[in-house]
Amino acid sequence: MRIYFTFEPRPDLCESLLAEFPQVHFVFERRLSHEELTQADVLVTYGEDVTEEALQYAPNLKWIFVASAGIEKLPAQAIMERSIIVSNVRGIHKTPMAESVLAHILALKRAIPWIYEQQQKSEWSKKAKQSELYGSTALILGPGAIGSEIGRLLQAFGVKTIGCNRSGQTAPYMDSMTNFTQLTDVLPQADIVIAVLPKTAETTHLLTEVHFRAMKNSAIFMNFGRGNLVEEHVLLHAMKAQEIGYAVLDVFEQEPLTADNPLWSLPNVIISPHISSHSSRYVERSLAIFKPNLAKWLRGEGDLENLLDLSRGY
């Protein structure tokens, strides 16, 4: 059994793998090598380096473990044709991403950026425009592992949570639920709209001009899922027309965001360069999912955690 990592975990994490699975030959590199692929039974990757061409060099490959939640860059059709199993680390992002979302919300509500600006100017002023998070309503698009953790934290602050998914079926830490087709009906209730949806055909350009017009003009819109959710020109118009109060964006249609993109200069837009899930414990949490799955795999069991259906995109 040969397992090929296209990234290199910390030395202590590598040592832990070697100690727990002495029967496995591990290869740790910082790139994808066609030569190593020819011998790999299992591939562990962040998912952005696997191409259809690369798969041609991997005749023995049976399982791809993606140390990320997003799988949209994988060559899905080629993988399905080979019947290669794919699993990911869905759920490990919930702590850092929920903390990132909450940090941005509290910063805006309590005027933290303004306070920092006053300090830089050595100016004593009490003219901050501050409001409370308590008693507000948050609409969470995609109340899965990440969205539910955001809901849990928001409820602790006295926020009413409304979850929205394709089915409208109940989700943890949501006071009520709706579905995509009823979205315009609930948007006027929301003080904060938080999107943590995956990239699928159904979520592509899900939000349109109609949805932004339905939001409160004081609403905070946050996209921490995928940039395909809304066309950039739609978002630009909404912000320039001040149809909503703020947009906090961690993801974009085209990444990285070019230096001349007009989003940078809008005063009611906050740019985060797709880092909301970053954490010093990221790889540690990824391996906490990989190792039990590997133990199952070695025993010949097929019920791995976070198995993906590439035909559906998640």
How would you concisely characterize the structure shown here?
The protein has 11 helices and 12 strands.
Structure description:
With 314 residues, the protein is of the alpha/beta class. The protein has two domains: 2-92 and 280-298, NAD(P)-binding Rossmann-like Domain (Rossmann fold, 3-Layer(aba) Sandwich), CATH 3.40.50; 94-271, NAD(P)-binding Rossmann-like Domain (Rossmann fold). The protein contains eleven helices and twelve strands. The chain has a seven-stranded parallel β-sheet with strand order 8-7-6-9-10-11-12, covered by helices on one side. It has a five-stranded parallel β-sheet with strand order 2-1-3-4-5, with helices on one face. α10 links the parallel β10 (220-223) and β11. α5 crosses α7 (145-156). The radius of gyration is 22 Å and the shape is elongated. The model has no long low-confidence stretch (mean pLDDT 96).
Report Rg: 22 Å
Number of strands: 12
For the largest sheet, list the strands in their spatial order.
8-7-6-9-10-11-12
- Structural class by secondary-structure content: alpha/beta
Question: What is the annotated CATH architecture of the largest domain?
Answer: 3-Layer(aba) Sandwich
- Tell me the number of helical segments per DSSP (H or I, 4 or more residues long): 11
Instruction: Output the CATH homologous superfamily of the largest domain.
Output: NAD(P)-binding Rossmann-like Domain
Quote the beta fraction.
Answer: 15-25%
Succession of helices and strands: EHEHEHEHEHHEHEEHEHEHEEH
Stretches where pLDDT is under 50 for at least 5 consecutive residues are: none
Number of domains: 2
CATH class of the largest domain: Alpha Beta
Helix content: 25-40%
